[in-house]
Amino acid sequence: GAWRRELGLTLYAGQHLPGQLYGGNSLELYHPASGVRISFCALEALRSWAGLDCAPVPHLSPSAPLPAWDYTFTTAYPGAVAVAPPGAGVPSQPDGTTFYARAAVDLADGPARLRRPLCKCRGASGRPPLVPVSDPHPLADCEPAPPSPPPPPRWRRAAEELDLASLLRERGDAPPEFCDSVDLWEDNLDPQSRSTLRVRVVCTGSLLLASLRCFVRVNGVAARVVDTRYLLRPDSVLRARSWREGRWAELAGEGAPSHVDLGPDEDSLAAARLPVVRPPLTELLRLPTAARPGRGGGGG
Hints:
Layout: H1 2-7, E1 20-21, E2 26-31, E3 36-41, H2 42-52, E4 80-83, E5 156-157, H3 164-169, E6 178-190, E7 193-204, E8 207-218, E9 222-232, E10 236-247, H4 248-252, H5 266-273, E11 276-286
Antiparallel strand pairs: 1-6, 2-3, 3-4, 5-11, 6-7, 7-8, 8-9, 9-10, 10-11
């Protein structure tokens, strides 16, 4: 289907999409004063997965061949930043704009040749016209092109640390004003092995917190937790990204069976137990306090 074509997946290689793909789900965080929007959706996350091409996790059985592709759908997708109104341009269906290089299997064979012109009309200069010759003033009634959308603000490295748990503890027992989670996909690799991508948002008075987590568990082999956390403030956004990964023993304990049930919060357990394998990255995005002209735009 369209999703496979967009991502360059082939049945020949045994590639497939996540078993439960929530392509219509998305989460958007919008800053009205600047027009900056932070969005999360499954299609962009899968594009990031395809571009990352992470090394496949081997299967538990030593006799099983090494997988030829990343069947765990590990992605470092952090969300997308754009200067755009809510709901504008967040893709829920493939549109052919993927950056993932697909094999050119449908190109014609042989050397390239220029196609003969379809029209032999000539203008006063003797050259083929660029606009219809029937209109003597083709540009007279044309409206000026709309201004190009402004680019989103740039992320800058920051020394500040982002600890969502501490921020929530400071609130004490006060319940959050709003709390929700949005599933982007879930794939059951085998019983109790799974891969999930989920984004959560919590609003507690003056704080707006968001967390995007890719969790991978391969029974008896390894586990991964790729986190992107956000703290949104009136004039800035703090973003922290981390990658944790480890052996099965580091998650379940030495001598643990390969199919142990770690409970409903196994992703949080993995985030607490697995070592950091890539240096954490914290970035700051300054938000303009005045509305920016124009609409649209994109970035990540």
